[in-house]
């Protein structure tokens, strides 16, 4: 037993200190990596929802009931004579109306979000504007321009904002999780919309 | 005289810890590099979506425009024997009508984040094409600001090949080597709208 001298107190303290430094560095990096993962996943999800939104506004969809013209078609902007007069968003989710039918795709469970400033946390928050009910990914009301950005009034420019409703609430910079999109659609219908 | 760490057998632990620290730093650098690559890929995906829909808007406008105006420019409908090269000029005129909506800015990203689309119409370049075959093509290109210029070669370029000037709705578009009359009508058939690999 006498040959087993073990470590001195200084050795143990030094090695403990070195271990602590390594663990602290690794932990800090792990936390940062988790934050990166969260951010990238959120942005990938936003890209996916943007594509879905483009599709709905462009092509419309199919309803389970019949509309004004006897079909179940919900006509997209390309198949319309004029842009919808009603808002294309309700509670931050898509609400697209055509042929007296309404599509409300891409819904999430309802959340209550409190505005704390202009654009914080939701893109269309105004300073101290109370609580919003959020059920979707549309950060602002889709805007249509049939004048200055239109060709002979037969095209419409559509602008919308996709946000990540989960990330904006906890991000230090919520604007990182909101992206704008533009597109032009040709209004191909020659007679009034049903 | 022996060095102090030479007397301390536990000094090996310090060396091990130092090695561990170096490995941790190296690993962190490796992962960070991967994250940056992934972040660029996500931003690239965002830019591609924006560019794709900008181009789709252009090409869909053109197809609608052909249906409406029938390629007739300073002529009385119906007109025949209009050469492909002339039809291509008229197609380019339709594209040029989009001048006001060919530049897309995203100031929320940066004042230097813009994507500009350019579309060029021409008679189909396939060898053997006849003068009145009706085969036209259109290609797209981008010029973008410095912020997205690195993606220029990766944005979804499109190519449209279509046969125009068909005599009626049921007409079959002839082969490239056949004359189909060079009609100025609203009828066309799309051979392909290709999203070329970026």
What are the key terms here?
heterodimer; A: 194 residues; 1 helix; 11 strands; 23% strand; B: 198 residues; alpha+beta; 20% strand
In short:
The complex is a heterodimer of chains A (194) and B (198). With 194 residues, chain A is α+β, with helices and mostly antiparallel strands. Chain A has 1 helix and 11 strands.
What does this entry look like structurally?
The complex is a heterodimer of chains A (194) and B (198). Chain A is of the alpha+beta class and 194 residues long. Chain A has one domain. Chain A is built from 1 helix and 11 strands. Chain A has one helix at 9-59, and strands spanning 60-62, 73-75, 89-90, 93-94, 96-98, 101-103, 111-114, 131-134, 143-145, 155-163, 178-186. Chain A has a 3-stranded antiparallel beta sheet with strand order 9-10-11. In chain A, strands 1-2 form a two-stranded antiparallel ribbon. In chain A, a hairpin with a 2-residue loop joins strand 5 and strand 6 (101-103). Chain A is elongated, with a radius of gyration of 26 Å. The N and C termini of chain A lie far apart (97 Å). The model of chain A has no long low-confidence stretch (mean pLDDT 92). Chain B has 198 residues and is of the alpha+beta class. Chain B is 38% helix and 20% strand. Chain B is built from 3 helices and 5 strands. Chain B has a 5-stranded antiparallel beta sheet. Chain B is elongated, with a radius of gyration of 29 Å. The termini of chain B are far apart. At the A-B interface, helix 1 and strand 11 of A face helix 2 of B.
